[in-house]
Design brief:
The protein is mainly beta. About 0% of the residues lie in helices and about 40% in strands. It contains no helices and 14 strands. Strands 5, 6, 7, 10 and 11 form a 5-stranded mixed β-sheet that branches. It has a 3-stranded antiparallel β-sheet with strand order 9-8-12, with no helix packed on it.
Amino acid sequence: MAEQTVADVVAHRKSDELISVPRVHAGEHAVMVSADGKAIVFDEGDARPMGRDTTGVRGMNVRGDDRILGMEIAPEGSELFVVTERGYGKRTPVSEYPVQNRGGMGVKTIQVTGKKGRLAGMKVVMPGHELMLISEEGVVIRVNAEDISRLGRST
């Protein structure tokens, strides 16, 4: 199977920004996460190839002041790691997320509260991966992915 790329644009307004262009193989899934704690998993085939002068395709629908944090390809057996603005993090098997059609609103991946804050980052991780987190104050935290709590999708 030929390797391709999946490019995604956040929205369709002048403030649009290209956020990711990962390489993908046929049958793989893309994962997108928003700051308000929503995530969507869709098949790479849903992001059809487009010409150079087009605006791209919508990966996830967001409302209000929500914004897309990132998009990654999720290999079989991978987990989604998310971290909030106030340092709360968790990882969840990507298999717990329903595969949806591209352009949907997604499902809850974390309960966003005033105590935890909105989501600040996301990463698809595998066993053996290490993460480096840097706070606004410049504190660097290095942690094994397995040391982060493994919790259900909507906790």
